[in-house]
Amino acid sequence: MKHYILTLIFVAATMVAAAQQARWITANDAERNSTNTWIEFRKDFNLAKKPKKAETIIAADSKYWLWVNGKLTVFEGSLKRGPNRTDTYYDNIDLAPYLQKGHNDVRLLLCYFGKPGFSHINSGQSGVIFDSPSIRLCSDSSWLSQRLKAYQTCGEPYTNFRLSESNIRYNARLENQNDLRPSLEIGTWNSGAWGQLVERPIPQWRDYGIKSTSNYDTTEDTQGNTILSVRLPYNMQLTPYIDLADPDGATTIHLETDHVWGGSAECVRAEYITKQGRQQYESLGWMNGEILRVIYPKSSNVTIHAIGYRETGYDCDFEGSFSCSDTTINRFWHKAMRTLYVNMRDNYFDCPDRERAQWWGDATILMGQSFYQLSPRANMLMRKAIHQLVDWQKDNGVIYSPIPAENWDQELPAQSLASISTYGFWYYYMHTGDTATMNYVYPAMRRYLDVWTLDEDGLTGYRDGGWPWGDWGTDVDMRLILAAWHYLALKSAVNIALLTGHTADTADYSRQMQSIRAAFNRCWNGYAYRHPSYHGATDDRVQAMAVVSGLADTSKYQRIYEVFKSQEYASPYMEKYVYEALMQMGHSDYALERFKKRFGTMIDDTLHTTLYEGWQEGGYGGGSTNHAWSGGMLTDICEQILGIRPTVAGWKEAVIEPRFSPIKEATISIPTVNGTLKYSFKDDGEYYHATVNVPKGMKAVSIAPDGNKKELSAGVNAVEFREE
């Protein structure tokens, strides 16, 4: 073992030492740092023998594609810049499978965004650094490069300011350019515009390959264009591909999806200008949608032979599964799954079209869905999100999102509190057992909580934070929304302080929680919680937060239930907490009734395979139709109706505490970090029959509605209890 550790240390040291020899390089071109610049790099080299291993480290600003000996090796390498305000990610790749004895060649295509966005910070300098120490290949001025003039930017409308990506126009008539010249050396490892280099914490994208078809719908628009439309199997992240012939050339082909307008803003699209003859083209800037469109002038002589797409996405599996006796719930589950996956790439998104931004109100809800649907490989994306959140903390202690971002710095206090709450950091820990991350984030968490104060009444003081947003819609009782999230953040802080050895901090957290609890309950008017300064209709969101936080005692449940039956102000974002509250209060039947009523339109929508941002398509100022916060009910089904959740971090121990509901039969498989837990039940109206398959190494207990407990052993267990 010591020898193995020493070997790893030696290999790591060798790679770092070799990296010192590598140079950041770019094209020797005056326009190399222009927005949406594409640069080709080439290097030929010889090997005396084929290596067994060729670990290679590559960093780029902003994205790259790599071919080794003509084989596509990396499709869209690199992550958007921003582990913190100054640094850059690098990839670690084994090139050995692509190398051969004798002559070898490397071709790298670099895309430099050249502008900021809500998920990328611009360095102001295009560049790439490449080092493969075992084959002694590193980037320097001997690499040939050229700025590719065929890659251009489409005219207006441009992508909106939230996106760092540009709309790519490719002029095939310019592609035979041969201006290769020695590259310009512009920095060494951990130097220059890119700061320190941080290893990529998530896997390379999963590439599902190009799928093409000659079957498409043909229509015409009023501008004299032919529109070919391909219906995709679901809303996906894709790069479009076309196979066509044009005897004339110079025809502009438009490539877009039905999400080119992301509800309220311009999104990614592409253009291709043909050359003469038969040709194929793949536009490398990914877009998303459910319909792929190819548009060209009807008057042209273009012949389309095939339309295709390459789906790529986060590299994880849909290991979780669920089905039940309720077809509406089944349809919702499938849509929630698709909405979640299309919102995962460099980071968790609020939406993959308009923003691609990691808002933390969204991230907390997406995290819950990930744990119950996706293989544990998805957990790396949340760990990355958590590290980024604290590493972007402001000097004054404020944490904010979305990050990484150069053109946004507003706090959204309610979302920031949610991020560190029992629905955020502590929830992540319970599902992963990742103590190292909790140790890492706790100091930042404590600094942020120090930003918050209590007012003269002992309630959480109001903070604007730049955007005092609690939810979409009207009638938001913001003071009590903030107080509930603050309470949950303090509860999380107590847990994490005890875990990480900061026990002395817990007394102050507990004191603040007691003060908030007393002040919050002084806002009870006998019918509902309302802050004295609030004059709108009674806010159902606040009542939900009162229940799920534990601020409301059971004596108030009936009154709160009556509020839920009459008030429907919560957006799909906060509605998740309404259902959770109803289920905790023993009203799973009404939770499902309200859910079907409010989500019915988007569940029954046959044109969209994903869920909306608002209650209607285009709601809340033009909201998107692929917002995964609307999948929050998925987590409620797992944790509240089925009652399955971890009780010891990392799913070392779990509880199964089902609630009676209109769902009479269901089967679920949950891919935890401690093995796959399987559960199925059938409620025949008199008895509740269940089967639980507990993975080895997990302790589980079943709790009946009457409180009776049964310890479950590894393997298959039968559970039965009589309904009252």
Explain what you see:
This protein has 724 residues and is of the alpha+beta class. It folds into four domains: 202 residues, Jelly Rolls; 107 residues, Galactose-binding domain-like (Jelly Rolls); 321 residues, Glycosyltransferase (Alpha/alpha barrel), CATH 1.50.10; 73 residues, Maltose phosphorylase, domain 3 (Sandwich). The chain is built from 15 helices and 32 strands. Strands 11, 12, 16, 17, 18, 19, 20, 21, 22 and 23 form a ten-stranded mixed beta sheet that branches. Strands 5-4-7-2-10-13 form a six-stranded antiparallel beta sheet, with no helix packed on it. Strands 9-8-3-6-15 form a five-stranded mixed beta sheet, covered by helices on one side. A hairpin with a 4-residue loop joins strand 8 and strand 9. Helix 8 runs parallel beside helix 10. The protein is globular.
Mean pLDDT across the residues is 94
Instruction: List low-confidence stretches.
Output: 1-17
Shape: globular
Report on the biggest sheet: 10 strands, mixed
Rg, Cα atoms, Å: 27 Å
Question: So what's the CATH class of the largest domain?
Answer: Mainly Alpha
- Quantity of strands, as a count: 32
What is the count of helical runs?
Answer: 15
Q: Structural class of the helix and strand makeup?
A: alpha+beta
